[in-house]
Write a structure and sequence with these properties.
Number of helices: 23
Largest sheet: none
Low-confidence stretches: 269-276, 535-545
Helix content: over 70%
Oligomer: single chain
Distance between the termini: 32 Å
Length: 545
């Protein structure tokens, strides 16, 4: 049991965190609204340019979502039907790589396979054929979104299929059901319940996509709202248009988030090395060949761009690149921003989780506490409502009267990256915190431990690992982000993603590949450090099923 002073401190910490987040986001939105009213900008309903950008944003998000879902279904079914083939666990792990990969690195990998000088066009040229494959424009954006989102959809669907009771498969085998009947009566009802939530998540990711569209968009004909905001400020310096685009982006994001609340949230319940089930439909020779072809195609589609990043990076002189002053400056800046953003994200997340836990344990909570708990629960949605480029635009306009906004760029990027990492950190930290509290509450009360003593002797040893995991994930997300940096990046504020993008924009592809490999290795090491010691978790999860 917590003392009255500890409860007050916990609730105050949550309230201050909420106030800070609301103030930071609110100031940006209010400035955008005021600038939009004051500028007398074009009405989005009548401006052809804004309508064209909105139309393309929604079109590419819809097509990307459909392609990701449609392609994920047969791959997930193949993985579920073949639970024991060699390399299955590694294929599932491979599907997790795009989710933790900096988007810019994934784009470079796709260019290495599908680009003008990529592997596919080189193979076509060797066969004496023309080079019809172009990755730029709508086709490239769709390809990139499928590369990142199809594995996510596949893992979520696979998790659902592997929760189907074993008795279903015994009955299917006893009745001699054909694969089509198995899909119709067993698999499709499961997938049908999962697809709306998965589709909403992917649509949200595609509608707010920035780096992929900036890299592969191919010009004004393939521009989304976030990229148009960046172009309006960075190249055209048209604050009025940037404001209207930002407000339109907020409306679109709000509508998507509202629609997502109507569907259950998809969950990845830890993955799945295969249960000891016998699926008759997967033992047929034709089914095994089809599944093998699907899984091989999925492995090549995901693995080849990753291999391209590694091989292209190794062709560069990594030692020479690492010795360049610009790289060292970018590396120090990136790590400093990532560490600060990670610490801030973990601190805010812990304050929110602790406050929510204390309020939920209070049997006599007042209406104000209930309201605070509801507001803390909705914090992640508030952050998702205003994407990084929109936050950066609002603060860019707010700081202009004070002089050059780039003077405040580093601090703004730290806060924006911390807020963008907040939903992920809360998801990692909250379950561990809940388990820790249940296990240690009575022990701490019986020993009379409070305050610093409890933190040092009970809380820190029990929560140290999830805290480090959250910190490493937040740092990796911040380290690979290009959103906020794109607006403020310059020679004086150079991060590793901005350095890679600058080299790519100046056609120094070899250097860009080398820097991308180094950036990818740093993010990979951070992820490995965060998950160290969790190797037995999957096994424990299966035992508890």
């Amino acid at each position: 049991m917590l003392t009255a002073s500890e409860r007050r401190r916990a609730i105050s910490g949550g309230a201050l965190s909420l106030a800070g987040i609301a103030s930071f986001v609110g100031i940006a939105v209010v400035v955008l609204l005021a600038a939009g009213i004051g500028s007398g900008g074009d009405n989005p309903i009548t401006d052809p340019y804004l309508l064209r950008v909105l139309r393309f944003t929604l079109l590419q998000a819809i097509l990307s979502t459909l392609l990701s879902i449609v392609l994920a279904i047969p791959v997930a079914r193949a993985l579920a039907r073949q639970p024991h083939f060699p390399g299955r666990l590694w294929l599932i792990r491979l599907m997790a790589v795009p989710m933790g990969l900096p988007v810019l690195i994934g784009a470079l990998g796709l260019l290495g396979i599908w680009g003008q000088r990529g592997l596919l066009n080189q193979a076509l040229a060797a066969l004496g054929l023309a080079q019809p494959v172009s990755i730029y424009g709508l086709a490239g954006i769709l390809l990139a979104h499928v590369f990142f989102n199809m594995p996510l959809a596949c893992r979520l669907m696979l998790a659902g299929l592997e929760r189907v009771p074993a008795e279903y498969w015994l009955v299917a085998g006893g009745l001699g059901m054909k694969p089509a009947s198995v899909f119709r009566f067993i698999e499709w009802p499961v997938l049908r319940g999962l697809i709306p939530g998965i589709a909403g998540l992917i649509f949200m990711l595609c509608a707010t996509s920035f780096t992929l569209v900036l890299t592969l968009g191919g010009g004004p004909a393939a521009t989304t709202l976030e990229v148009a905001i960046y172009q309006a400020l960075r190249f055209d310096f048209d604050p009025g248009r940037a404001v209207m685009l930002s407000l339109l982006q907020i409306v679109v994001t709000a509508v998507i988030l509202g629609a997502m609340t109507l569907f259950p949230s998809p969950d990845d319940h830890g993955l799945t090395s295969g249960r000891a089930l016998l699926r008759i439909d997967g033992q047929l020779r034709a089914a095994r060949w089809v599944d093998a072809a699907l899984l091989l195609a999925a492995a090549l589609f995901i693995g080849l761009p990753l291999a391209s990043v590694i091989l292209s990076g190794l062709e560069a002189d990594l030692l020479k690149l690492a010795g360049q002053a610009i790289f060292q400056h970018a590396a120090v800046t990136s790590l400093a921003i990532a560490f600060a953003a990670g610490l801030l994200a973990v601190a805010i997340s812990f304050a929110i989780i602790h406050a929510r836990s204390v309020i939920s344990a209070d049997r006599k909570k007042t209406s104000s506490l209930r309201g605070l708990a509801a507001a803390l629960t909705g914090t992640s949605s508030l952050i998702l409502l205003v994407p990084p480029i929109v936050l950066a635009t609002g603060w860019f306009l707010a700081l202009r009267p004070l002089g050059d906004p780039s003077r405040f760029a580093a601090g703004l990027i730290v806060v924006i990256n911390a807020l963008m990492a907040l939903p992920f950190v809360i998801r990692v930290l909250e379950p561990a915190y809940a388990v820790h509290r249940r296990r240690t509450e009575r022990l701490a009360a019986s020993l009379g431990l409070q305050g610093i003593s409890r933190l040092r002797l009970i809380d820190w040893p029990g929560l140290r690992k999830p805290l480090f995991t959250s910190l490493s994930f937040a740092m990796a997300l911040s380290l690979g982000d290009l959103g906020a940096v794109a607006l403020f990046g310059s020679d004086s504020l150079m991060t590793l993603p901005w350095l890679v993008y600058s080299k790519l924009g100046s056609y120094r592809t070899n250097d860009a590949n080398g820097f991308a490999l180094i950036l990818g290795l740093v993010c990979f090491l951070l992820t490995i450090a965060g998950t160290a010691g969790q190797g037995t978790r999957d096994g424990e999860g299966k035992q508890n099923d």
